[in-house]
């Protein structure tokens, strides 16, 4: 099972430029989380801080007892091996075949024999649907295939935490839909803790168990997906609605007068429809995170805003109804 990541009071600046401050959240073990936020709000900086590549000046990132900000470098290095990272462009070596790209972390970080490396690499290539393309160079395949190759490479060291930085960038809507399904299937197969940074509203609506948003140097919210999807925060409404009206401007935040003028043109959260979360493809095991998440969310439900509470109850009531309809009748099998 994946490992919980606990972020406490994290603050990061570059010189005098504060990126975000006092960010606290928990990525629950084995669940899928999404971090949204307008461009430049520091989502990539956040991912890099989780793996200890950037050092926030305040706060902690706790993984299995190691603080990725301030523990000794050797502990951070060891803990980093628990991560699988998928970068925006796939970050593949242009002169290596897909096979060699995907095998790279195994050759670099383990002493496995070539026969074992081949077995693992081909298994991961199959998971991401790239069988047959393993001999190609990154320049010979499409952007979507490069992303899937990047994902396969992120998987070879059996990561317990997977970070994906804008996995959808440059993909058309159909490829993005396939990628969303792949992320859910992956979670069903390996039960890793996953954090996906994206601007894509379809991924945000259908993939995660939890969602958060960074804006104006703060974490606006982080919690069960229904909290953000029913939120009345203007920045959330604007982002989910993909509109110009709202606090997010083209290059900078808007002034109060502009915001007041726009206020009555925004869509209320109540009119948003929450679409069901994706299920693993037929033939795959159910996601183990689902039961754990349900238990966790039901423990905290009374502390959630009323709209999120009703959305969660509706979802679970619908799931229960579907389960009753599709459950096999006891003793009725041939
Ligand atoms: N190593 C660095 N040194 C100085 N400033 C940096 C560094 N890395 C990032 N920044 C600054 O931090 C801010 C946030 O960058 P980041 O790439 O994390 O944003 P983002 O939310 O991921 O944006 P996008 O959605 O456009 O990818 C930017 O202003 C960027 O210039």
Automatic annotation (TrEMBL):
Pfam families: ABC_tran (PF00005). This is ABC transporter ATP-binding protein. GO terms for molecular function: ATP binding. Keywords: ATP-binding, Nucleotide-binding, Transport. PROSITE patterns: ABC_TRANSPORTER_1, ABC_TRANSPORTER_2. Residues 5-241 form the ABC transporter domain. It comes from the Bacteria.
């Amino acid at each position: 099972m994946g490992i919980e990541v606990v972020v406490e009071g994290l603050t990061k600046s570059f010189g005098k430029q504060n990126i975000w401050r006092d960010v606290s959240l928990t990525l629950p073990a084995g669940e899928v989380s999404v971090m949204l936020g307008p461009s430049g709000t520091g989502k990539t900086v956040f991912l890099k801080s989780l793996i200890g590549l950037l050092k926030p000046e305040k706060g902690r990132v706790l993984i299995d007892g190691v603080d990725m900000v301030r523990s000794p470098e050797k502990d951070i290095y060891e803990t980093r091996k628990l991560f699988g990272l998928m970068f925006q462009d796939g970050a593949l070596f242009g002169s290596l075949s897909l096979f060699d790209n995907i095998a790279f972390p195994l050759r670099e970080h383990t002493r496995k024999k070539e026969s074992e490396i081949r077995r693992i690499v081909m298994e991961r290539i199959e998971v991401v649907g790239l069988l047959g393309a393993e001999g190609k160079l990154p320049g010979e395949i499409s952007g979507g295939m490069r992303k899937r190759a990047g994902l396969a490479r992120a998987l070879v060291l059996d990561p317990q935490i997977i970070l994906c930085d804008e996995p959808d960038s440059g993909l058309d809507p159909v490829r993005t839909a396939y990628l969303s399904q792949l992320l859910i299937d992956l979670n069903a197969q390996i039960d890793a803790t996953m954090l996906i940074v994206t601007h894509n509203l379809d991924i945000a609506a259908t993939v995660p168990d939890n969602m958060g948003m960074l804006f104006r140097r703060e974490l606006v919210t982080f919690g069960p997906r229904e909290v953000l999807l029913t939120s009345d925060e203007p920045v959330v409404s604007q982002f989910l609605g993909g509109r110009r009206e709202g606090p997010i401007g083209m290059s900078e935040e808007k002034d109060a007068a502009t915001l007041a003028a726009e206020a009555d043109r925004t869509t209320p959260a109540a009119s948003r429809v929450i679409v069901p979360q994706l299920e693993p493809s037929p033939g795959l095991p159910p996601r183990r995170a689902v039961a754990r998440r349900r238990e966790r969310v039901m423990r905290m439900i009374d502390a959630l805003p009323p709209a999120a509470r009703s959305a969660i109850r509706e979802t679970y009531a619908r799931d229960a109804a579907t389960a009753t309809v599709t459950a096999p009748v006891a003793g009725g099998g041939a």
